[in-house]
């Protein structure tokens, strides 16, 4: 169960994305998956490279479109554990429509947002997660927009699983991804993943000073939606841990009339090896 491959990530040294890669690899091993049981779909951005850095089926999609592909993958083969991953620009700007609808649809996949509060791949522009007043090349006088709160959006959209973590907390992050993979429905996990090259405001130290960990709130009940929203708002969305989980609702695919338990890989498609090779060649 080794989810490492021999591809060396080309992320900048110190980038938060390394920990997310490690957490996914550990979580997949902890839940007892084999590499052929896991599919990872990513969008575009520094984070988008993650689908190539894990020993599993990987699909590097187009900008903001990891979720439609990941949902299609799950519907085509429900036996596969499917994970979608991408940055905050990918998921909360160009892909925001998909994010909200995937959340409310509740297909059984896990979505990890690698949230660095900036566009890293294009060398540092303001993203939907950048704070008001944040200065970049695209907002030299400071951003005049408010930062989006992904946790509030996810809860309002009807999420059945919401977690948030921080790249420096590998233990918590691994446990959350593991729980997300086991959850019967859509799991939304936002991860503070510092961009050490372009974001000089939201640094590792800044997060360490500002994060509010739910471990410090023993009375917190993650099944209480009102409590979750109150806590998210009280902490300005800087809450980490398992924020909300509804275990009573079953996932989308269980409600599709006639939907098969058996994955496509098990179906007898009545196609010869030669015909299959011809098909693959045609679509290469
Ligand atoms: Fe990571 Fe930022 Fe470098 Fe991209 S530019 S790899 S987000 S540190």
TrEMBL record:
InterPro entries: 2-oxoacid:Fd_oxidoreductase (IPR051457), OFOB (IPR011896), PFO_beta_C (IPR032686), THDP-binding (IPR029061), TPP_enzyme_TPP-bd (IPR011766). It comes from the Bacteria. CDD domains: TPP_OGFOR. The lineage of its organism: Bacteria, Bacillati, Bacillota, Bacilli, Bacillales. Residues 44-191 form the Thiamine pyrophosphate enzyme TPP-binding domain. The keyword Heme does not apply. Coiled coil: none annotated. Its cofactor is [4Fe-4S] cluster; Mg(2+); thiamine diphosphate. This is 2-oxoacid:ferredoxin oxidoreductase subunit beta.
């Amino acid at each position: 169960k080794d989810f490492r491959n021999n591809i060396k990530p080309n992320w900048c040294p110190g980038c938060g994305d390394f920990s997310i890669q490690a957490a996914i690899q550990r979580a997949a091993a902890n839940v007892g998956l084999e590499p052929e049981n896991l599919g990872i779909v990513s969008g575009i951005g520094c984070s988008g490279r993650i689908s190539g850095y894990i020993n599993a089926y990987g699909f590097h999609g187009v900008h903001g479109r990891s979720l439609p592909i990941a949902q299609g993958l799950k519907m085509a083969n429900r036996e596969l554990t499917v994970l979608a991953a991408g940055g905050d620009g990918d998921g909360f700007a160009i892909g925001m429509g998909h994010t909200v609808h995937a959340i409310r649809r509740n297909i059984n996949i896990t979505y990890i947002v690698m949230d660095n509060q900036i566009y890293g791949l294009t060398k540092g522009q303001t993203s939907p997660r950048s704070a008001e007043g944040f200065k970049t090349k695209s907002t030299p006088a400071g951003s005049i927009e408010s930062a989006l709160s992904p946790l509030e959006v996810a809860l309002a959209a009807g999420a059945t699983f919401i977690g948030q973590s921080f790249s420096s907390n590998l233990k918590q992050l691994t446990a959350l991804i593991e729980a997300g993979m086991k959850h019967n429905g859509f799991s939304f996990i936002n991860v503070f993943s510092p961009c050490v090259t372009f974001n000089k405001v939201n640094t590792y130290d800044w997060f360490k000073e500002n994060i509010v960990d739910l471990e410090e709130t023993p009375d917190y009940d993650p099944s209480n939606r009102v409590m979750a929203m109150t806590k998210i708002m009280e902490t300005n969305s800087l809450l980490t841990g398992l924020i909300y989980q509804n275990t009573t609702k079953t996932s989308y695919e269980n409600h599709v009339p006639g939907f098969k338990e058996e994955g496509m890989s098990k179906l007898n498609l009545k196609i010869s090896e030669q015909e299959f090779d011809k098909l693959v060649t045609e679509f290469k």
